[in-house]
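## retry 2 of 3
previous attempt timed out at serialization; input unchanged, resubmitting
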Amino acid sequence: MLGKSKGEQVRLVVHHSRNTEQKQWDETVVVCLAGMTRLIRSHLGIMSQLEGFEEGWSELMVVVESSLAGGRKEVALAAMNLISGLMGTTSVDIDKGMWQRGIRALDVGVVAATSSGCQVPLGARTELVNVIGALYEGNRLRFDRASSLEVYKWIESFCRNPWSEDDAGNPVQPVGMPPVQKIALNVLLKLQPTHDETLWPDYLRTVAKLLDPEHAIALMDSRPAAAGVKHSGAMEHDTSTSEALPPPASAQYRLALNAAFVERVMEQLTILFEQAPLHSRAAAFPGVVDVLGRCMEVRGSDRVNMMTSCLGQKGGGNQNVLFAPGIEPRTFSV
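## retry succeeded, writing output
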């Protein structure tokens, strides 16, 4: 109650979703970002002629970076709406410097969303992947070779690090691929370099690298020692105990390679390899074969068996097996 007016009580009603200072400040940032988006879209031609506009744009991108990396869903989504609203449409003619500064801001968001200690909510991470895909698909000609390779690296990061601490605490765990991985693979198909054939070998190598088991092996090597696992150079599986190593609570040790993911990547790689120009297939072929060779090298090894145990699979189940024997062999032609 705030007081009385004319003998009647005056009460302030606070909605439960805005009942803390942090939530109220978050809403303030969301409203400000939405307002800046409308203002710049409508008056960019005039604003770009004003003194200090470049510094103002850089400061706005700093706000976008902190919003993307801050771990607050509504604020992160507002920052993505600003990026897509200003950079993802041809109606807003931003110059090269503004474009490159926006790409750097996105890079900060991707690093935060794919780090080992990620606190960015799932909804914000999936939307960030979609924004990247839409931005590239609608503005291919703006992406030079360096920025295109940056986008490939972003999608690879999302595929290799699809978990967050927020996911680890969720009692309902996804079966098969995590949501971020599913969206990232869908976006990856839309990144075909139709505007620049010289990018095809890099694009194919990016897809093939998703099958590389070294990332998963490095994660397993970094796990703390536990019963049933010996750490002496190469990791060995101790068959003297039937206890499986419990899955870790931290997202840092969640494995990104699973049977559904590997099979999906193989299918996409086969399709894309056949669609690529002949000279691009020839250039990418050694790298593709190298990655597939490393996959076969570790298949059935003690490391793979131990990874399977860490995921809670005790024989028979192949939902989360790293390299499932049920995956059909593929053939490539150059």
